[in-house]
Inverse folding.
């Protein structure tokens, strides 16, 4: 199975692809799927992730990688209303694409495909939206940075607001990653799932303790200390065993030290590479290594 994926747009270009569903306000990870190289079309992946929420009237916000007119129609039949950006080759009509190219800054054009509205809005760049939650309504809003009032489609404003959960989860998962560089993909998958569990625990803790200002790092440190103390308590003999004269003794594990210990390990100069002559053995016809 081919787990490793290549994405040229990311800082870490190679990695394991994990598709997730987040709660929009807190970033709580509701469901996930690890790409194993055998997943079906994107519509099947979205259907798998949203299967627990079908028929319950949930609202879904997703980016242009997942959205299409066909996908949105299928979600609407499952009582899931969606909103998000969309690519021009995912069902936008040709006349709308041509009209959107002529829009000036602040102008809007829209079309309706049955029950699915398609909206194009010209800001600093052209933004194409699809939504079964909104109409083509344009409202006035104020920029946070400049304080200048301008008009935007309501679907764009709601999309920016509710995608906050995705940014929150990604930010926390990237702050203190547990995954280390290794070629063993089970290790990466295990630590990825472990970190997702820790983040969900932190979100639940923060929700139930609104007055607590504990950071994610402090939360993970407390869990680590509790696990260490629990492990020590389980490994140490109990008081009842001592009173009964139990012969259970904890035997420390023997560490395997290297045969030829480097002298730089003690003086802090281990990184300074030293050239050492490697003599030729009896079975070697030619010397293959110089150092």
């Amino acid at each position: 199975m081919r787990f490793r994926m290549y994405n040229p747009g990311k800082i870490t270009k190679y990695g394991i692809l994990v598709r997730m569903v987040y709660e929009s306000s807190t970033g709580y990870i509701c469901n996930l799927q690890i790409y194993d190289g055998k997943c079906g079309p994107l519509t099947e992946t979205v259907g798998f992730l949203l299967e627990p929420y079908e028929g319950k009237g949930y609202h879904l916000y997703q980016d242009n990688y997942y959205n299409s007119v066909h996908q949105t129609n299928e979600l609407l039949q499952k009582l899931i209303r969606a909103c998000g950006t969309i690519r021009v080759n995912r069902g936008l009509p040709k006349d709308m694409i041509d009209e959107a190219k002529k829009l000036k800054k602040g102008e809007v054009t829209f079309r309706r495909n049955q029950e699915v509205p398609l909206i194009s809005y010209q800001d600093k760049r052209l933004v194409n939206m699809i939504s079964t939650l909104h109409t083509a309504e344009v409202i006035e809003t104020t920029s946070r940075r400049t304080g200048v009032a301008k008009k935007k489609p309501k679907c764009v404003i709601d999309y920016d607001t509710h995608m906050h959960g995705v940014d929150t989860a990604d930010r926390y998962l990237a702050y203190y990653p547990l995954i280390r560089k290794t070629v063993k993909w089970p290790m990466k998958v295990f630590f990825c799932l472990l970190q997702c569990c820790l983040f969900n625990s932190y979100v639940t803790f923060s929700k139930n303790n609104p007055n607590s200002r504990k950071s994610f790092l402090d939360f993970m440190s407390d869990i680590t200390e509790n696990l260490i103390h629990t492990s020590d308590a389980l490994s140490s003999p109990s008081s009842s065993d001592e009173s009964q004269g139990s012969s259970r003794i904890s035997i420390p594990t023997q560490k395997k030290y290297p045969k030829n210990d480097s002298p730089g390990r003690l003086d802090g100069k281990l990184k300074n590479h030293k050239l050492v002559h490697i003599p030729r053995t009896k079975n070697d016809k030619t010397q293959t290594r110089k150092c």
Observations:
- Confidence is low (pLDDT under 50) at residues 242-247.
- Residues 4-167 form one domain.
